[in-house]
Amino acid sequence: MNKSIAILGSNGQLGKTFQELSRLFEKKYNVYFFDKIQLNIQDKNLLEYFFDKYKFNYVINCAAYTDVNLAEVEQEKAYMLNYNSVENIADLVKKYNLTFIHISTDYVFDGKSCTPYKENDAVNPLNVYGKSKLRGEQAIIDVKPNNTIIIRTSWLYSNYKGNFVHAIRNLGKKKGEINVVYDQIGTPTYARDLAEVILNILPYIQNDKPEIYHYSNEGIASWYDFAKEIMKLSQLDCNIKPIESKDFLVLAPRPSYSVLNKQKIKEKFHIEIPYWRDSLEKCISIL
């Protein structure tokens, strides 16, 4: 009998990517997808009803409030989804003894490092989004469910709309020149790479307390570098002008450096991680 997976937040970038990949794993798993309409994870009783009904073995939480700027305004909504709901899931995962993967973010760091962040480095988020995601992490650690991991990732993009790649391509088709910040450094992450890793490591997650891992593609880039490569691979003739963060007014401050050290996940699960430009090329080739 196949083991079953619940994917929460199935209409986000990562959730849609899991839907795309599910056919590759359908012989191994029964995969159930839940968006916010089908399952409001803020309702703990409803969440328990679904856990009890479907008898999941694995839960992957992709649901999050991810609009970094709007989170500064809608703080209560951000905390409700990124913290309170995560605590609900952690409680039930522990009660039903399920394997649990929760997705978090590089924005738990303040960007003052000059070397890639390790999992145990000090956290100090600069914005409400990062603070609410950190509270979610801490809730899981406090609940202490077995067989649980938190994966922090960065600069996530996918084949679906609503990310930097699609935004830059759309601007490149309409404008002759755009401004992009060059003084924020991190690593783009292709959602398909992350989803494949998660599905592959699921059977091997075994721990008596929650563990944190970092995952992004390999290499480093600024948003300017990322945008230049998107234009190049998309064969769009749009000039990109590098600007400083102080000249690009946004509600939420971002870390100037948020490169993640991925040695722990590579060694633990024996995985190889693609270089960010190679993965970007794959993504753009199918857009």
Description:
By secondary structure, the chain is an alpha/beta fold. It has nine helices and twelve strands. The strands form four sheets. The protein has a six-stranded parallel beta sheet, with helices on both faces. Strands 6-9 form a two-stranded parallel sheet. Strand 4, helix 4 and strand 5 form a beta-alpha-beta unit. Helix 5 crosses helix 7 (223-234) and helix 7 packs parallel to helix 9 (276-285). The longest helix has 22 residues, at 75-96. The two termini are 36 Å apart. The relative contact order is 0.16.
List the helices and strands and how they pair.
Elements: E1 3-8, H1 13-25, E2 29-34, H2 44-54, E3 58-61, H3 75-96, E4 99-105, H4 128-143, E5 148-153, E6 156-157, H5 164-174, E7 177-181, E8 185-186, E9 189-190, H6 191-201, E10 211-214, E11 221-222, H7 223-234, E12 239-243, H8 263-269, H9 276-285
Parallel strand pairs: 1-2, 1-3, 3-4, 4-5, 5-10, 6-9, 7-12
Antiparallel strand pairs: 8-11
Helix pairs in contact: 1-6, 2-3, 3-4, 5-7, 7-9
The strand order across the widest sheet is 2-1-3-4-5-10
Helix and strand content put the structural class at: alpha/beta
Describe the largest sheet: 6 strands, parallel
Uncertain regions: pLDDT < 50 for 5+ in a row? Answer: none
Q: What is the β-strand count?
A: 12
Order of helices and strands: EHEHEHEHEEHEEEHEEHEHH
Write down the oligomeric state.
single chain
- Helical run tally: 9
Work out the helicity level: 25-40%
Tell me, what's the shape?
globular
**N- and C-termini, Cα separation:** 36 Å
